[in-house]
Write a structure and sequence with these properties.
alpha/beta, Rossmann fold, nine-stranded mixed β-sheet
């Protein structure tokens, strides 16, 4: 995997692709892929390679750590870790070049990842792109499309947490986390569940949540209360190609709930697939996602 890292206001941001980035300027179709909460972008390697086979330049963004709302990104240089920690900004500020109505709290929570994604697109010189978001990445890409629809060729959300609320008056944050854990464990024990459909709990993924408990708690609150269906519906009515792909055994957002929301918003294309929350890693679902982007490209070309 080819990758680039950039120094942000606080720590770093990165991009990954099977293709060399010096070929990016020659590409007509670019897809930005936003993986789930705390997951390293290389976990979506199979999807990126499938997109390459369809003639698309795929880029998985790494927005786990950096803040990018105060100054432009700059090329990351290796150096003393202690010196970098000393020099980095301690404030996120209330301003934001991509979200004019931003607040300091917003820059620290629901706008941190969307801002970082747009900053990465700008430093790479990508004006328009297809957006693919898995899990919390679905909320992130929807937020980008909501504020900057002129830059989005299509929006594809896969098992999107934040697509509809999971924390309500009847379901607390603690009960949601417990329910998800229990249902995931039950799903993993089924003999029919393929290895590719199991959560990629790598050491790096676990370390993210262990090292950032306060950030994780804040972001879970934001994710849990988010309701992206009205935004997706409005974007679809305004001409953005919006697709929601949802797995039938997803323990995070139940399939029947997702299907009910979809019936209330027929402007959004709804595609059911097999598997659990991490069906995103199944070969058949990967092919479905890639085919969806190709269909969107064809439709955009016809409209132009």
């Amino acid at each position: 995997m080819h990758h680039k890292r950039y120094t942000a206001d606080r720590w770093t941001l990165g991009v990954y692709s099977p293709l060399p980035f010096d070929k990016l300027a020659e590409s007509q179709e670019v897809a930005l892929v936003h993986d789930g909460w705390g997951i390293h972008p290389t976990k979506s390697k199979a999807l990126l390679e499938e997109l390459v086979s369809k003639g698309i330049f795929p880029i998985a963004v790494d927005t786990r750590y950096g803040y990018a709302n105060q100054s432009p990104l700059r090329a990351h240089r290796r150096g003393s870790l202690a010196l970098r920690l000393l020099k980095q900004s301690r404030s996120t500020g209330a301003s934001n070049p991509y979200f004019p109505e931003a607040t300091m709290r917003g820059n620290r929570t629901n706008l941190r990842r969307p801002t970082s994604t747009l900053a990465l697109a700008d430093i790479l010189g990508i004006e328009k792109f297809h957006l693919i978001g898995f899990s919390d990445g679905g909320r992130t890409v929807t937020t980008i499309a909501e504020q900057h629809p002129e830059r989005v060729k299509s929006l594809t959300v896969v098992n999107g947490v934040g697509t509809s609320p999971i924390i309500t008056d009847r379901r607390t944050k603690r009960s949601v986390v417990r329910s998800i854990r229990e249902k995931r464990q039950a799903h993993r024990t089924q003999e029919t569940v393929p290895e590719s459909d199991r959560a990629p709990k790598s050491l790096v993924h676990r370390a993210y949540h262990i090292a950032h408990p306060r950030r994780s708690s804040r972001e879970l609150g934001v994710i849990g209360h988010a309701d992206g269906w009205p935004t997706k519906s409005r974007l679809a009515q305004e001409g953005v190609l919006v697709t929601v792909i949802h797995a039938k055994d997803d323990p995070v957002i139940h399939f029947d709930e997702a299907q009910e929301y979809a019936s209330e918003h027929p402007e959004v294309k709804f595609v059911p697939v097999e598997g659990g929350h991490n069906a995103y890693y199944r070969p058949d679902v990967i092919e479905t996602i890639a085919d969806t982007i190709v269909q969107n490209i064809v439709q955009v070309s016809k409209e132009v």
